[in-house]
């Protein structure tokens, strides 16, 4: 059973603490206070785009800044895999491309791309799924700074010529992986498979234990079928050559447990709420996480 009031109370507490620490901060991720955004676009071509490489469509992003309304022409495309399926999401996650000349001097300055995690289906149940996923991102931020920053937003999705918004729901934006890498002094790994010996053992154990805690078995820290490594974890390389994973994409976890979630039959579990540890056994001297003497598979 969802606990929306507790989830929202926790979000409010986190936002209040952050707003005190970052009072007056002008950049997007330097505050956790929810903000209001408006996106105007022709939505049907975007949400029905199921091509392997989705097309970018023109849109208008606006919000109220300290000196009045700010309006930015941007590009939008559908994002994700399962959530781009029509029988799962009415509105899939979106990737926002922010032109440099438009974002200068705005809340979004220094940010080239953002992922917007939407409500998916236009009802309160799915909005709660989204809020729970947001809290999973925030939870990993409490563990390590080597993680995606997120911010809660209230979005009005408008269409040209329509007086009322098509949707008006909570959502959240996620820091792009390239911006994350730059912030922590690392670089994105371009290859699709990495040598497990290159993984920072403590960072890998941290990610594996977090995946176990939230009920996530659909991940790989060393490979991905097509595209840069890895699966549901970004691989970032430090200047010394070591690689650390950054978990992401938490919608089909046991914590969120949406109605469309289904574990891989090879995992031997019936639901995503059934925990299974898929990490590696590592000597204690290599890991900040105390390992079991024997890993059960």
Description:
The structure is a single chain. The chain has a seven-stranded mixed barrel. Strands 8-9-10 form a three-stranded antiparallel β-sheet. β2 (57-65) and β3 (68-78) form a beta hairpin. The radius of gyration is 19 Å and the shape is globular. The chain is built from six helices and ten strands; from the N terminus they run αβαβββαβαββαβαββ. 32% of the residues are buried. 23% of the residues lie in helices and 22% in strands. The protein is an alpha+beta fold. It has helices at residues 4-21, 43-47, 100-103, 124-143, 177-183, 201-214, and strands spanning 35-40, 57-65, 68-78, 94-97, 113-117, 150-158, 167-175, 187-188, 233-237, 243-247.
| Radius of gyration using CA atoms only | 19 Å
The number of helical segments is 6
Poorly predicted sequence stretches spanning 5 or more consecutive residues:
15-25, 289-294
The helix/strand class is alpha+beta
Mean pLDDT: 88
Beta strand count: 10
Strand content: 15-25%
* Shape descriptor: globular
**Spatial order of the strands in the main sheet?**
1-2-3-4-5-7-6
| Main pleated-sheet profile | 7 strands, mixed, barrel
Helix fraction, binned, reads 10-25%
- Straight-line distance between termini: 30 Å
Helix-strand string: HEHEEEHEHEEHEHEE
